[in-house]
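Quick one: structure for this chain?
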Amino acid sequence: MVTYQQGWSRLDLTDTPLGPISLVFSHNGLASLSYEEDRKAIPPNMPTAKAAWAVAIKQNLIAYFFGLPMEFQPLPLHLDGTPFQLRVWGELQRIPRGKTVSYQELATRVGNPKAARAVGQAVGANPLPIIIPCHRVINADGRLGGYSSGLHRKEWLLRHEGVDI
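Got it. Here's what it folds into:
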């Protein structure tokens, strides 16, 4: 969970295929990406982001939604998580566009093959969906599994990236 601090800023994207999205920035980089129904925790009076990298992240998201083959690195990110969560989130960024891995495979990749459930919790706590592509993790049997912002969004993102569901 992201703890918003004084001096952070916000940028809203109102017209995306997945509905309105809010991006929140710390002084170090992008700290959270929230869909409309998840934005309740963001202070409403947060100032608008004006940093050059905020504009770059917005442009990357627009390019992504237009279907351009690009990745979101090396964008400045402000990640606040446990060491295990940070390992999982780092490994998520290595899953190529159009590919999926199982929670079990991701657990093996982070060095703990018996931690599929803990990996699922770390994936669900990802503060930057889309940017850190947690939607690319599915159940071992091929079912979608969960997605903190709704399975309809996970399905849309995977189809958008060319995954046959």
